[in-house]
Design goal:
Blueprint (H helix, E strand, L loop, with lengths): L9 E2 L8 E3 L2 E3 L1 E2 L5 E2 L8 H18 L31 H21 L4 E4 L8 E4 L7 E5 L6 E4 H12 L6 H15 L4 H26 L11 H12 L3 H11 L8 H12 L16 E3 L17 H15 L4 E3 L3 E2 L19 E4 L2 E4 L5 E3 L4 E9 L6 E9 L5 E7 L4 H5 L5 E2 L4 E4 L13 E6 L12 E3 L3 H7 L4 H4 L12 H11 L14 E5 L2 E4 L4 E4 L12 H11 L11 H12 L7 E5 L2 H16 L3 E5 L8 H5 L2 H4 L11 E4 L16 H18 L4 E7 L14 H11 L3 E5 L24 E4 L10 E5 L1 H7 L13 H16 L2 H18 L7 E7 L2 E6 L10 H13 L2 E2 L1 E3 L5 E4 L7 H14 L10
Parallel strand pairs: 10-11, 25-35, 27-28, 27-29, 29-30, 30-31
Antiparallel strand pairs: 1-4, 2-3, 5-7, 6-9, 7-8, 11-14, 12-13, 13-22, 14-21, 15-20, 16-17, 16-19, 17-18, 18-21, 23-24, 24-25, 26-32, 31-32, 33-34, 34-37, 36-37
This protein binds 4'-deoxy-4'-aminopyridoxal-5'-phosphate.
4'-deoxy-4'-aminopyridoxal-5'-phosphate binds next to helix 16.
Length: about 950
Amino acid sequence: AAPDLLLPRVVLSKDGAAITRVDQTHVTLLTYVPGKVYARVRPQLPELRHSLGAVCGQISSALRTFQHPHAARWHKWDGAQAAWIAEYLPDIADTERRAWVAAHLRRFEELLPTLRLTRRQAIHADANDYNVLVDQTSGFPGQVCSVIDFGDLVESHVICDVAVACAYALLDQADPLAAAADVVRGYHQAFPLSEAEIALLFPLICMRLSVSVTNAAHRKQTEDDPYIVISERPAWDALEKLQSIHPRFAHYVLRAACGYEPVPHSQRVRAYLKTQATLCPSLVGTDLRTSPLTVLDLSVGSLLLGADPANAQCASLSRLVDVALAQEGVEIGIGRYDEARLIYTSDLFAASANPTVERRTIHIGLDVWMAEGTPLYAPLAGVVECVIENPAPLDYGPLLILRHETPDGDDFYTLYGHLAADVLARWKVNDSVAAGDLIAHIGGSARNGQWPPHVHFQIITDLLDYGRDFPGVALASQRAIWLSLSPDPNELLAISPERFPVEPSYTTTLAARRARLGGNLSLSYRTPLKIQRGWRQFLYDDTGRAYLDMYNNVPHVGHSHPHVVQAIQQQTALLTTNTRYLHDNVLRYAERLCAKLPAELEVCFFVNSASEANELGLRLARAFTGARDLIVMDAAYHGHTTSLIDISPYKFNGPGGQGQVDWVHVAPIPDDYRGSFKRSDPERGAKYATAVEEIILDLQAQGRSLAGFIAESLPSVGGQIIPPPGYLSAVYAAVRAAGGVCIADEVQVGFGRLGDYFWGFELDQVVPDIIVCGKPIGNGYPLGAVITTRAIAEAFDNGMEFFSTFGGNPVACAAGLAVLDVLERENLLQNAATVGRLLLDGLQDLMEPYAIIGDVRGVGLFLGLELVNDRQTLEPAAAQASYLVNRLRDYGILAGTDGPLHNVIKLRPSMIFSSQDVEFFLTVFASLLQEDGAQPRA
Ligand code: PMP
């Protein structure tokens, strides 16, 4: 029925039999199916589980018409026949655990009549994690390619087949429900499941696990076969985790996985609310549809809040809300439904103290910010479900929940939070409330967690068992479920949607970017990130998820550093102009920069980017030498302009590159790990410099003169290389002897990143003739600088004006000055040295257990990790480097790959990186190194 499915197939004997006898044994010969056993695949990611579901669904689809006289049989592993475990419950020694299983059994028995109404056919019924094979030949984590072992094939209900696949796929997973949902999603796509079937799934999964543990408990008593108990511990762990999940919530999650509305009656409740919108009394007495009001943006990317978490503290928030209302000249503020917010900083919003565990960010009510004491009226008739003073630790003031019913008989609730205390005396549970009744007043900030006065208004379609603790803020990963549990209160308030400024969704942004920006403007990661906020060493995406930034070197002293921000704000509010007028900022900055440099480097030029700075460096060298030819280093990148592409082998030899121009000469990278001269050779620095000397001799033989040599003092784009001692000094000497100048591109390595050195060239105790700075020096404000000797500057001053409109403007220089202030005040070079050493040591410790790490190198917070498949041949492990960087992102850590062979993991966090960050990174990284995708290729 399904010739394309990769399955073990029966090989008939010479006389055409499927089963034959060898000695006393019945044997059947099956074709071999290659693949890795699912249970041993690490990690088991959502896409893998999706493919598991899909293959199981395809098998069921193929079995749809399969008939066999013995298919309908008694079988203890058939989910529909699982009631047999009743007899063996006493074998479970632990009373609490026995009670869990007993409860699952009771539920199963209650559901049996419903189960009997669902589809029946032959099902595989045993997609356990040792029967499932994974193909990893085209990447990791791989794809499920086959399910073997048809020994449990039975005529039963299709949904029982799904339950088995889910029950094993969720073993040992942090979020078992999400794991089950992934399988169901794949199954449903291949072989659609009905709503009635899905309603049975969670209890059947629990029952399958119950059968497994009961079977193990029983057989353990008489047998000694390790296979019997292979799933026992993980199955108990899973049952324990599932205990804490409300079965209806699980049902909603599984429905959502199949594309059904998570809460079945949510749609009907919404439709009813819509019919009431124009009829019902106003919540706050004045009609919100026509009242002057403003929508307050409290999202991750809120300009009102900015990045500083201090603004999310209630006192600041109160002030900001007041200011925003005053600015708009209105008395009513609206806080948006379905908005990702980072204002919930209390640990109550964290599922765990582990930074990799998701925090709740999605606001699922609607706030009306109005004066304390504003009366509130019931928009709909109902009955008091709950009225309570929210006690510590929540401390959010009194709360009222009303129960309502739609004409179709669906219950739903309205919730009013942060109320004044009079609500407590006004109502008791089960009181009837008429539409328009005064129900409460908005509380003051004193008794609602110091929040500015407002009512949090929320609709709830199923209270589950939360009662008064029903969340008002949900996990982004469960967004669809919670939006169905708590539909938009504006269905009832009917404030026109045009009054809600909309934030483009992730998909809108992605599509708009593709439509409006150039295609070769690349995006990082297979699933690009939409970053909305940066604070210190963290970036935050549109759902409020935090990422530890170990990649971006521009925010040198941390994202959104308040001192830099303030310097820019104050100066831009006063003056920004150009260098044709006298101004002290540019001079202050030039002074401070030169103070960090050897005395010879004394004349500064300011531009807007490192590209512009390198471009100028090139002009200076040519003006001074009158020559054109330049020696560059292999795999180097110096910027995106026409001339800089010509001097960047990384570009001109890369995809789309036009090849080398005749005035550019490429010297090899002095890479003492991979190159011709290794670390064991004390003369390697001089030996690598010989290549440059040879280029010079060659030029001289051709009668050409040399403008200079340009290189990053430590090649970063070239793979985080630390040139061996003696290299730069020998090269500089040779270049100068040939009449050339030495340009140091310090864009990535300069400015203290190396910890013990402010500049990269200090490592080999040389002094360049021209240094080029950019990127980190403005902490994100566009700023580039070129500093050179008096003689070179004078040669350049040949009558042609030098002018860069924005270069050296007062705002840019204020930013630059502020960065220097922070580096000094916060002692960040010292920090880079100590924290960098910790990181380097930690990574070096990982070399012993993990053969994939060929080399660990670094100075300060400039680190590289070179991955190889073989430490002898140094065969690059680029796929694994890319795998690890993508996995780090899954764990909320941003890193990158670099190097000519793309096998170097590049780490260059901001200068405020801390020892806790190092510890967190190393823990995550060590765990990722154990995954399949991080293993050396044999
Ligand atoms: N030089 C080096 C070493 C760089 O890494 C870069 C940017 N990656 C540049 C120059 C060019 O910088 P920008 O894009 O800011 O012009």
